[in-house]
Amino acid sequence: MSKILACIDTSPYANSVCDLTAWAATRLPSSVEVLHVIQRKSAVQERRDHTGAIGLGVKSGLLEELTRIEEAQGKLAIEAGHMLLDAAVERLRASGIHDLTLMHRHGGIVETILEREEVCDLLVMGNRGASAEFAIAHLGSKIERVVRTSKKPILIAPSKVGDVKKVILAYDGGTSAKRALDLMASSPLFENLELHAVFVGEDNERHRVMLANAHQHISESGRSLTTSILHGSPEPVIAELMDSTDDTMLIMGAYGHSPLRNLIVGSTTTSLIRMVTKSILLIR
């Protein structure tokens, strides 16, 4: 049996992560590991930070008091984490998911997720992190680091998860897009769903042949695929398509260019994660 890693934090996206996890776990089927990570500095490092911030003349008693406050905040964070995990279990069980494991860890968020993904087949994360209310159009740095580094498929949960009846593949014939196509052809995740592949760019013979080959590949698996070519820039065209289509999930390859090129000219992956308000499955 496969295993899903559901990564939750204190953001409003925790419920969406649980709902999308339940959808995937029911279709695959899979067991679920729910992960919550508390990231904090050591007391020694915090004390040094305070010393630099408030000056050399401060009394040591104040520094000790600040350290006690931080330790109390750490205990509250642990308790809040337990409550968050308990709520996640309740929500998942209400959706019929009972094969659950809880993981409450301290340390680096990105590093812990990448460590736990080694024993999982699929990751589920929220579209924004714990400061989601302050960054409506910004992709959290930790989420982006996971997406760029992870070797596993990642489901990105929007603020509200709806029913999924149709899957749209952003297809460009690249390596990761072909892996996504293979997954559409073979995974029970997409069984009995309406499948569609779209290419955004010039309508020419090469691109029509590319989509025809994708259609044949899906047909040989016993499933059906419709295809289309749309004109324009991929990011706004795909985002508009997703916004105009109900009950839809987007599948796309993740970060097809080098990190240096993405740094200079930006990334279609990052832009679409920011712009699309539906569930997204990223394939490396």
Structure description:
This protein has 284 residues and is α/β, with parallel strands linked by helices. The protein has 2 domains: 2-40 and 76-156, Rossmann fold, CATH 3.40.50; 162-283, HUPs (Rossmann fold, 3-Layer(aba) Sandwich). 46% of the residues lie in helices and 21% in strands. The protein is built from 10 helices and 10 strands. The protein has helices spanning 14-27, 43-54, 60-94, 109-116, 141-149, 175-186, 205-220, 234-243, 259-265, 268-275; strands at 2-7, 30-38, 100-106, 122-126, 154-157, 166-170, 194-200, 225-230, 248-253, 280-283. Strands 3-2-1-4-5-10-9-6-7-8 form a 10-stranded mixed beta sheet, sandwiched between helices. It is elongated and about 75 Å long.
Furnish the topology, listing elements before pairings.
Elements: E1 2-7, H1 14-27, E2 30-38, H2 43-54, H3 60-94, E3 100-106, H4 109-116, E4 122-126, H5 141-149, E5 154-157, E6 166-170, H6 175-186, E7 194-200, H7 205-220, E8 225-230, H8 234-243, E9 248-253, H9 259-265, H10 268-275, E10 280-283
Helix pairs in contact: 1-3, 2-3, 4-5, 6-7, 8-10
Which features characterize this protein?
284 residues, alpha/beta, Rossmann fold, 10-stranded mixed beta sheet, 10 helices, 10 strands
Number of strand segments: 10
Q: Could you list the spans in which at least 5 consecutive residues all have pLDDT below 50? A: 42-48, 132-139, 257-266
Radius of gyration, Cα only, in angstroms? 21 Å
How much of the polypeptide forms β-strand, as a percent range? 15-25%
The CATH superfamily title of the largest domain: HUPs
Envelope shape: elongated
Describe the strand arrangement of the main beta sheet, using strand numbers.
Answer: 3-2-1-4-5-10-9-6-7-8
Mean pLDDT: 85
Named at the architecture level, the CATH assignment of the largest domain is: 3-Layer(aba) Sandwich
Sheet of most strands? 10 strands, mixed
Order of helices and strands: EHEHHEHEHEEHEHEHEHHE
Secondary structure class reads: alpha/beta
